[in-house]
Amino acid sequence: RNDITTFCSPRSFTHTLVPHTHEFRARAETLGRSNTRSLPTQKCVRSRGQMSIITVQLGQCGNQVADELYRTVISDGNQIKYGNISVSENRDFVESEAGRFFSQDRSDGVAEVRSVMVDMETKVVTQLMEEARRTGLWRYPKGMQFCQKRGSGNNWAYGYCKHGPGAKDTVIELIQSEAEKCDRLSGFLVCLSLAGGTGSGVGAYINECIRDEFRHKFIMDQVIWPYRTGEVIVQNYNSLLTLSHLYQSSDAILTMENDQLHNICSQRLHLKHISLYDINRVICHQLASVLIPARCQTPGGTISTTYGDMLSCLISQPDFKLLTLRTIPQVSVKVQAFSTHTWPSLMKPLRQMLIANSGMEDGINWNVGVSSGQQSSSFNKSISNLLVLRGAGCGSADPSQFGGARLYPPWLPAGHPLTVWSHERSFNGYEKSASLLSNSQAPVRCLDRTIQKAWNMFTAKAYVHQYEKHGLGEDDFVDAFLAAERILSDYRNC
User: Fold this and answer.
1) How confident is the model at residue 55 (pLDDT cuts 50, 70, 90)?
2) Across residues 21-32, what is the average pLDDT?
């Protein structure tokens, strides 16, 4: 690994990242990007029209996570207590919220999700479609699924080199068909796992195909780091290969760790028997908190924010694409009914979670600070942050503690790296909540651990032959290591 690292000092060679900075900015301007960083007021809200998101669900993990996201959006829209806004304001919000992910079937009025489902086995897809249909509230569109009868066997090469090319034409045709239904398409949310074969291998290939077909639309990948103790023996190979390929075709990669999510379920939600369903609920509570509508103040007034706005403010530097998400509060349903929070009581621990790189309120290291006497390496440094506040009195919250200059690298261009959005409507049963979507050094430890374990296996030639028989050679592994080391080096030295 030391041999590889010598070639990967920050910015030591030309990056060939897609999209390039000028192309990214042009796309953001086309979609009506706002550069404003201040808290919005709640009057004279100017709409830029409904902008839809198409979700591409890949593999078992990707399909199950996306399915739970839709359920979270539906549940939030149907909540009875929605805060200090009028009935008409709530109705407008719910329509805008649903419009991002659903279209209305004119024949029966049932909402149809804007999605394309991809899996190499039919069981999960069939089950999710039937469960959605039974709700009577929403369903998956017919014919927007691609399945086969044989999985990828947790082999990234099999998914990328075999199943991916075989699925390409049909899947892209389905995505194009779904895109044609949108009046204004903002971009794609691609849900996949890093560890498996279909989600990671097929997912990486399809992601590249989406970029080729929709070069001027935003793409964000939502990926799950596997458990440290191991889910699949070759999970580090698969994770390394997936990230190195996604970095070339995506605008942003939102990373979530199974270990952190498991701890939230155990320590914050007090669940004794934790299932994938419980973990997916935590994922989608956090994910929905930043994807549903919010408001931002501009010189021309308050505007509704879009998917493109979110990615534009976070990925200003194309070499830095890894995002992490923190949400507060997170409590069990029993505790939630009796909990009261103030904005200062939410903002202080959330900031400490950021600089101490903690995924939840419990176990925060309060000794970590950013005072002038401390080295920058002792805290989690950010490239950019998006703070989303939801609930009564959000306009009175003070976000300045997330904007200190020492939190960010000195080489950032002029303009504040903190963006703040808000909405007076409460979210998912919480009277007040705050979410922080960050482009920071937080993923470094996971990435470093993955590279180290994969390199140890690779130098021992462990399981490499299983990848080679499907067309992935040692040179492809080396390229993936180089790309991953470059990403790691850039973040460590930012």
Assistant:
1) very high
2) 47
Pick from 291, 289, 287, 207: which is nearest to 251 by CA?
207
Query: Among 431, 433, 432, 405, which Cα is nearest to 418's?
Result: 405
pLDDT band at 217 (very low <50, low <70, confident <90, very high): very high
Q: Which residue has the higher pLDDT, 434 or 15?
A: 434
The Cα–Cα gap between 56 and 204 comes to: 12
Tell me which of 51 and 483 has the higher pLDDT. 483
453 and 445 in contact (C-beta within 8 Å)? no
In 356-463, where does DSSP find H-type helix?
A: 444-459
Nearest to 59 by CA among 158, 157, 147, 162: 147
Please state whether beta strands 322-328 and 432-440 pair in parallel, antiparallel, or not at all (unpaired): antiparallel
Crossing angle of helices 59-77/123-135, nearest 10°? 10
Using an 8 Å Cβ cutoff, are 194 and 224 in contact? yes
Given a cut of 80, whether residue 51 has pLDDT beyond it is yes
DSSP-assigned letters across all residues of 121-173: SSHHHHHHHHHHHHHSSEEPPTT-EEE-SS--TT-HHIIIIIIHHHHHHHHHH
Residues with Cβ within 8 Å of residue 368, at least 6 apart in sequence: 352, 355, 356, 378, 379
Q: Which of 222-231, 339-348, 392-401, 452-461 has the lowest mean pLDDT?
A: 222-231
> Which residues touch 430 (CB under 8 Å, ≥6 apart)?
329, 336, 390, 391
Give CA separation, 274 vs 53, 83, 87, 282, 457, in Å.
30, 31, 37, 11, 31
Q: Which residue has the tokens 């029209």?
A: 49
Counting every residue written for the chain, the total comes to 494
130: buried, middle or exposed (CB in 10 Å: 19+, 13-18, 0-12)?
exposed
The overall longest dimension of the chain from CA atoms, in Å, is 66
